[in-house]
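To the wet lab folks,

You asked to see what we're planning to order before we commit. Fair enough. Below is the target structure as tokens, and below that is the sequence we designed to fit it. If anything looks off to you, flag it before the synthesis order goes out.
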């Protein structure tokens, strides 16, 4: 058998009906990779009087996921459906456009999807069931749009075959030229706010959302914990940008929107990404030069808004009808 060439180590995913029960991985994502890695926890034992260990006990075995890629309007819903609370999409009128809405419940569990992930080539493959996205970071600038993150899953099942003839989605990338940032004093004003014209980048991250619980006699199970939510905004050091220092001093809540509008799907419906969240300024970094402009980066702490009833909201309009 020939050596396994790296270039052919494909990754396929399948959406599980029952978390942890493997299914055919019949989808191949072309803009983002969920790369599984075997993880173990062992305990070596060395008897008293011996210089070297006698054996090592395998205590825990699981899989880690490394997520990296470029967000697209259609593939991003796979990641968000696992990280956040899943709701089935809604068809827009009688068109081929569908609205996907994602949020995170503040005081109860988020019920999302798990995946079976297969990786390998035509000669040899392995799979991981019960794969769950535990964190994502979305970055937006005029230079690039990025997504990266991590996840957890059950142990590797080796000696598998890749599911034949997987379906590939045609990537519809979120482009830097399509993105705008908005800021307002309340949620309602986001709809009429003027786009920021002296901002350079924004990042939104929700990480450490799921970990593994290890009950005796069963596979590890992904359990939701206390996540870390954060965001960053880089702006010019003019009156508007430096005005966020006043918001920091007064613990004032600001509302932010990251929005991208893409090509037309059908009729008046276009590919669209919208992320809204309220936040308070929680730190400020040293001003610095960026593309010959003196800029400053503010750290944003996303918070739960009691009137709104949540801490964030994402809507994707795309041509994908189902996972």
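Sequence we intend to order:
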């Amino acid at each position: 058998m020939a050596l396994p060439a790296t270039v052919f180590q494909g990754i396929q995913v399948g959406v599980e009906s029952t978390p942890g029960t493997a299914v055919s991985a019949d989808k191949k994502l072309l803009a983002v990779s969920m790369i599984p890695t075997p993880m173990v926890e062992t305990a070596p034992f060395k008897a008293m009087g011996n210089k070297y260990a006698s054996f090592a006990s395998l205590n825990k075995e699981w899989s880690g996921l490394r997520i990296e890629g470029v967000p697209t309007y259609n593939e991003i819903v796979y990641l968000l459906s696992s990280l956040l609370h899943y709701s089935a999409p809604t068809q827009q009128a009688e068109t081929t456009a569908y609205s996907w809405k994602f949020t995170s419940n503040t005081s109860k569990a988020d019920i999302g999807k798990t995946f079976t992930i297969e990786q390998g080539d035509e000669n040899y493959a392995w799979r991981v069931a019960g794969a769950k996205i535990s964190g994502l970071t979305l970055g937006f600038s005029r230079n690039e749009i990025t997504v990266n993150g991590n996840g957890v899953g059950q142990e590797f099942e080796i000696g598998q075959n890749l599911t034949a003839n997987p379906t590939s989605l045609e990537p519809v990338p979120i482009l830097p030229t399509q993105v705008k940032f908005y800021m307002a004093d309340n949620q309602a004003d986001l709809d009429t706010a003027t786009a920021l014209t002296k901002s350079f980048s924004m990042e939104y991250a929700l990480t450490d959302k799921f970990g593994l619980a290890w009950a005796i006699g069963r596979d590890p199970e992904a359990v939701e914990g206390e996540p870390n939510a954060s965001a960053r905004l880089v702006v010019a050091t003019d009156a508007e940008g430096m005005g966020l220092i006043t918001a920091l001093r007064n613990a004032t809540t600001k509302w932010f929107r990251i929005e991208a509008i893409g090509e037309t799907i059908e009729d008046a419906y276009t590919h669209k990404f919208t992320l809204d969240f309220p936040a308070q300024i929680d730190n400020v970094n040293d001003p610095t030069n960026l593309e010959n402009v003196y800029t400053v980066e503010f750290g944003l702490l996303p918070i739960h808004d009691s009137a709104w009833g949540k801490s964030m909201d994402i809507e994707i309009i795309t041509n994908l009808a189902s996972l």
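Structural context that might help your review: The helical segments are 76-83, 239-242, 244-250. The chain has one domain: 9-40+60-318.

Thanks,
Computational group
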